[in-house]
Amino acid sequence: MTVLSSHEVIEDFIQFASTLPNRKLRKYETALAQYASNKLTKHECAILSDWLKRSAERNEDRNDAENPVLFSVFFVLCIYARRMKNHSTHKDLIRDYGELFEGELLYPHIVSLFHKQYDTPEDMELAIHYSRKAVENLPNQVGVLHCYVEAVVTAEERGLEIEQEVVEDAREKMDQIIRLDYQYPKFHCTKGRLLAILKQYREAKTAIHKAIDKEDSSSTDYAIRLNEYQAHLSRIEAAESSSLILAELERTRTELEESKRELKISMDKMQKDNLQSLAFFVAIISLTIGSFNLIGNKPFLDSAFLIMILTGCILVGYLCLGMLLQQKKFPWKHQTFILLIGLLLIAGPLYFHYLSR
């Protein structure tokens, strides 16, 4: 393999940069990604990095005509570092040239891609923050939109608490992405992941299968992409199974709680009924024993009056006990008549007794 000189590498990139589409288009990013994958080597990256450093030091005016080329160098180096998982180099690029390129519409998108590589809550929040800024800059650029949605989905999958309105916004953006580019497989995969977060598992699996079907089997990274889709599909199926199990457990718990409540009500009612029954038998025994004690050697009429008064007192006392036990459920309409009889049994003998004196 021929090793190009520094001059040849720089000239080759300048010529390539002159053919790049408008930076507002997704084709600009995909062209740089293809260049990073197909043409860049570690040697050429070192040359471009050194050239970027020297050019940035000379470039005092950010509106200089050379700036578009410098930004393309910066972007392609970031893409290469991200693909090679060279996090330290990627971090250095963001740190060293952030101030120079922060005015570029795509700069927040690049920073978001950097933070998406990490699993820390801070990085995930920053990925969402910068991707939203990128969406504000380029609201119809499908790659920028997808970066935002994927940042939200990834953060949610990794346990970061995301506001519901952000998730809903991501869903709207996902629908927009599919409308703009229905054919790109990864977009359907991301849609499936988002639907899984919303617990729409059937639709989520359909979207993942669509991504698998649309993936080009002749591409060099087909196996990698397929494994990625299968991993997401397995995770969604596991989440669906867990959701069904949790739903069944919740249903069982609810049924147990309901059974427990009904059992408690039944036990309380049985306890009250038993107490009333016991009180009734005690009343009968009291009436019987009391009657014998009251009769003694007294005249028949006096004994009868005393027994009637005792019976009335027992009836009133029994009804009062029922009122205390049943409270709101006390059958007033049915028991009022018995209460009147009890009061008459008490008042009647007393009235006749005083009349006979």
Automatic annotation (TrEMBL):
Keywords, sorted A to Z: Coiled coil, Membrane, Transmembrane, Transmembrane helix
SUPFAM superfamilies named among the record's database cross-references: TPR-like
Gene3D superfamilies, sorted: Tetratricopeptide repeat domain
Source taxon at top rank: Bacteria
Transmembrane portions of the chain: 274-292, 304-325, 337-354
Residues forming coiled coils: 239-273
Name of the featured protein: Tetratricopeptide repeat-containing protein
Annotated organism of origin: [Bacillus] enclensis
